[in-house]
Amino acid sequence: MALHRLTLPALATAIALLPLPALAQQGGPPAQPPAKVRTATVEDRMMAPQIAVPGTIHSKQDADVAAEVAGRVLWVAEAGTRLQAGDVLARLDDRELQLQVQQLDAQVKSLLSQLEFQTKEANRLQQLAARDSAPVSRLEESQSKREVLAQDLVRMRAQRDRVALDIERATVRAPFAGQVASRMLEVGEYSAPGAKVARLVAVDQVEVRAQAPVALANQLREGMDVALEADGQQATGRVSRIIPVGEAQSRTFEVRVALPEGRWIVGAAVRVSLPSAAPQQVVAVHRDALVMRGTGLSVFRVSGENKAERVTVRAGTTVGEWVEVLGEVKPGDKVVVRGAERLREGQAVDTDPKVS
């Protein structure tokens, strides 16, 4: 059909007969689908004001392992090597010690031979003395020589065993399971007794050591949970030790906190939140429920009709992932913790637990 040949009235009639778009048929914009969100429940919780103190991650076992004998270093485990208790950490040259053992073995055999002969001689003289065929003084002299040889044999065996023990010590072994942090002697260097060979750290047995003000002593107890922050990551630890010995200058004492499982770096800095007053019952929400906009701090509460209600709040005490809130929210309310960034007042929501 040639559209340009139609008259204007006919063109208007043709347009009027075309199907109306969905927008016109509905008489307005299409309804916006419900926003998918995840919610959490407002809770009554016992919380206390917190003060953050600096701490450092330490290993419970951190040792500079030393050699117990002298010798040239033949091998040392590389830094970063993981070892179990008893694994070889370093080896020293023990050839001179092996020669000493051979020499002492020969002396022990010589003494055994002399002792055997002297024992037979003493027995023979004892028989002769019983028949008055040999003087008693000669028997006593033979018995004395036998006793001296027996004691010499004990000393020589002890000396040989001591050198054998040194040979065992020439192989330096890990006293506990850990990771080699650094080598302090290199292959070819000479080690003296007591010289540090390598630093071994039990990287899987770590804790936080923090210095807390003495004024907090009455608020702390072993076994209580405390919030931790390391490199922007939040975690919860448990107070394992309180060492009630204060520093005279800083007026602080040491608190040790057990860390949850995870990858922790020995020596890393940690912020430890400790209670500064007795805990009180407060209304609290998960920290992800708080929304900061130009008009202030708020949360989105989900109504019975699954509509978003924006409620202005003020934040109070923070403990770990929970924040005290002051405002028109009460325990049991459902507040949005995922998907609140684009919500609007009155918008329908779909509480989908899979939202991340």
UniProtKB/TrEMBL annotation:
Keywords: Coiled coil, Signal. This is Efflux RND transporter periplasmic adaptor subunit. Residues 284-350 form the YknX-like C-terminal permuted SH3-like domain. Residues 94-159 form a coiled coil. Residues 1-24 form the signal peptide. It comes from Aerophototrophica crusticola. One of its GO terms (cellular component) is efflux pump complex. Residues 208-261 form the CusB-like beta-barrel domain. Belongs to the membrane fusion protein (MFP) (TC 8.A.1) family. One of its GO terms (molecular function) is efflux transmembrane transporter activity. InterPro entries: Beta-barrel_RND_2 (IPR058792), RND_pump_MFP (IPR006143), YknX-like_C (IPR058637). It comes from the Bacteria.
